[in-house]
Amino acid sequence: MRTVAVLPVKTFPAAKQRLGDSVASADRQELAAAMAEDVLDALGRVSGLDAVLVVTAEPRAAAAARAAGAGVVTDPDEAGQSAAARLGVTEAVRQGAERVLLVPGDCPALDPAEVAALLSEPAAGVTIVSDRHGSGTNALLLSPPDAIEPAFGPGSFARHAALGQAAGARVRVARLASLELDVDTPGDLGALRGTLAAHEDGAGRTRALLDDHQASPATL
Predict the structure, then answer these.
(1) Would you say residue 100 lies in a domain?
(2) Cβ distance 67 to 74 under 8 Å?
(3) Looking at the domain assignment, is residue 205 inside a domain?
(4) Contact yes or no for 123/100 (Cβ under 8 A)
(5) What distance in Å separates the CA atoms of residue 67 and residue 51, rounded to the nearest whole number?
(6) For residue 132, which phi and psi values (nearest 5 degrees)?
(7) What would the DSSP string read from start to end of 148-199?
(8) Counting beta carbons within 10 angstroms of the beta carbon of residue 215, is it exposed (0 to 12), middle (13 to 18) or buried (19 or more)?
(9) What is the largest CA-CA distance in the chain?
(10) Residue partners of 64: CB distance under 8 A and separation at least 6
(11) The domain containing residue 169 runs over which residues?
(12) Strands 51-56, 137-142: parallel, antiparallel or unpaired by DSSP?
């Protein structure tokens, strides 16, 4: 089954606004860049993925994608994660994808082995991976790729489940600890710090950035 990962990446100056004054603007941009590149690296090591598509209007993200061997889909309007995901799904289908894995660019602790295990399980129409709060969606595995329309944002876990049920698709909930750690708020950033401190592997760029700024309360 040809499986394509779709990774929407917002332009870095516009990313991570919910971190607010807890992280300086320049540092938010560097954090967004580091996390996206770490996710790209991790996806490149996932057994069972046939291709990765990065949907973005960010030149640095596009360059990183090409360097990693991923495809690039231009996101000219930047109308949000759901719209970017739909652009990626459309291109994945054009490339012959039979299922798509939608993942965010801010889960740098992503464990390739966990994702490979998810892909090796019997396919469900809609597989939902929640965030650590249980209310958002941090990954969607769709088989076929148009099983439902992606609808990310607050409350998206329940929304995606309802969309799957309304479409008559088999809906499955999967727990992937490494994909629960997206970074939107200062609390999320603290949770990521704790996880990275407890594990030595993965998220090399994000880890280095956080370590470099650890001593200064005015930055990360």
Answers:
(1) yes
(2) no
(3) no
(4) no
(5) 14
(6) -70, -15
(7) S----STTHHHHHHHHHHHTT--EEEE--GGGS---SSHHHHHHHHHHHHH-
(8) exposed
(9) 52
(10) 33, 36, 37, 40, 54
(11) 3-196
(12) unpaired
The CATH number covering residue 32 comes to 3.90.550.10
pLDDT digits (tens, 9 = 90+) for 5-43: 999 999 988 877 777 766 777 888 999 999 999 999 999
What's the full length of the chain, in residues?
220
Residue 104: pLDDT over 90: yes
Residue where the block lists tokens 């990310």 = 152
- Determine the 3-state secondary structure of 210 from DSSP: helix
111 part of a folded domain? yes
- Give the chain's domain count: 1
**209 lies in some domain:** no
Phi, psi of 52 (to 5 degrees): -130, 135
pTM greater than 0.70: yes
Instruction: Give the whole-angstrom CA distance, residue 144 versus residue 97.
Output: 8
Give 10's contacts (C-beta < 8 A, 6+ positions apart): 32, 56, 58, 78, 81, 84, 105
pLDDT value of position 215: 44
Three-state DSSP state, 52: strand
3-state secondary structure of 78: coil
